Amino acid sequence: MSTLKVSAIQDASGGNTATINSMTPTADSLQGFRNRIINGDMRIDQRNAGAAVNAIGSGAFVTDRWAYFTNATAGAFNAEQNLNSATPPAGFTNYLGFQVASTQTPTTTNAYFFGHKIEGFNVADLGWGAAGAKTITISFWVRSSVTGTHSGNVQNVSNARSYVFSYTISSANTWEQKSVTIAGDTSGTWPTDNTAGLILFFNLGCGTGIQTTAGSWNAAQYIGVTGGVSVVSNASATFYITGVQLEVGSVATPFERRDYGRELIMCQRYYYKVSGDTKWFGIGYVIDSTRAQGITSFPVTMRTAPSAVEQTGTAANYGVITGTTSTTCSSVPTFNASTSEFSAVTLFTVSSGLTASQSIALRSLAASVYLAWSAEL
Amino acid sequence: MERRTMIYKIHSVIDGQTVFARIDDDGLCRLTCTAEHPPFQEYLKSGAELQDADGVVMSDAKEFVRGLP
Predict the structure, then answer these.
(1) Do A153 and A166 touch, CB atoms closer than 8 A?
(2) Searching chain B, which residue's CA lies closest to the CA of residue A58?
(3) Which end of chain B has fewer CB atoms < 10 Å from its terminal CB, N or C?
(4) Residue A245 and residue A109: Cα distance in Å, rounded?
(5) Backbone angles phi, psi at A59, to 5 degrees
(6) Is B2 within the bounds of a domain?
């Protein structure tokens, strides 16, 4: 065994792309939380648990943290985790899939796209909006029935700054890995708090009014590249993606593997769903003969206090438990504004029989019953 | 899960806060919220109707929401 002592290892041109066993160690790539994208491998799907979101509307989420948007015709796409059961790329078990349900021809400023909003706290170190803004590299696995030049953008939340990138899908219905490197933006406003700090969108078809040349920063919102393909314009076209990584530096490193629990709790900062049969939602107290309210502690401090509670829409799915007595709800659980970023307060209503100040527990009474809270960006 | 059209209506007042219910096109309420809920604000901004607790369309919906504590 010999010992090698050197002061530096650089690539042939003096740069930082030298590899060791196919890895490229750099100051950026060796730090924790390399991948600023949460659920980039599409494993977490709290909302739909793998079920299809057919004729998806704008603003709807499919896998956690990934939402679809359009300012044009709703219902153009069906979306689903592992749509059509394709085999994911090696090393992945899940992907996010879109399929055209209703063919559209985007007019001037029409756009069909999906993406991921990164909280400002998680990109504050990029220093965007000032001299010294750090370069980022985005890498992902993609597969589509539509070959040619596809595109996406990186933009700020005010739509005042955007950078369109393009990539080529060479073979139809074949997984291909892509990466793009983007010089940090030295202009514009890029929040560094709990609001949206940086947004990554993938274009599924947009009009010429929001297309531009790829590869430079613009002082307006552009979604796609000029002359690129339009997935939404092709009947039954598919677009699948996984392994999305956004990292500091000019090198695309291997996808950062995070344990399932960590990834789940990162998602739960933005959306938390308790679901299942006979699951306990929380404990609380009786207000009067027909009303009780309970507290559900969030597993992680949410990004901001939720302003709504979601439920199944069926009152009989929910029950108030007092001692050994279960009383079925007569109205669906209702949001209480005392909900904070730490815990939710939910009102359960029954027709009669409760006694003020009793201790209670809130419970689901059937399969697939849930309560959910959102603090999405 | 299918795409749903929906309306919002006033649900109740809880601890002094007005709570709104989203009624999906199958008639079920799957979400209740306060006026701060971003999708509710987008809904109002789009000019869609808000109903009072009796299901009557409110002509002054935006003013009503603006006036909430």
Answers:
(1) no
(2) B3
(3) C
(4) 28
(5) 90, -5
(6) no
Q: CB B19 to CB A334 under 8 A? A: yes
Question: Domain range holding B18?
Answer: 7-58
Read off the pLDDT of residues A120-162 as tens digits, 9 standing for 90 and up. 999 999 999 999 999 999 999 999 999 999 999 999 999 999 9
Q: How many domains does chain B have?
A: 1
Residue B65 lies in a domain: no
CA distance A342 to A8: 47
pTM of the model: 0.93
pLDDT digits (tens, 9 = 90+) for A229-256: 999 999 999 999 999 999 999 999 999 9
Spatial contact of A205 and A278, defined as CB atoms under 8 Å apart: no
Asked, for residue B37, whether it belongs to a domain, the answer is yes
Instruction: State the maximum Cα–Cα separation within chain B, in Å, rounded to a whole number.
Output: 35
Measured distance CA(A316)–CA(A303) in Å, rounded: 31
Is B67 inside a domain boundary?
no
Q: What is the ipTM of this complex?
A: 0.91
Nearest of A237, A299, A241 to residue A267 by alpha carbon: A299
State whether B30 and A310 contact (CB < 8 Å): yes
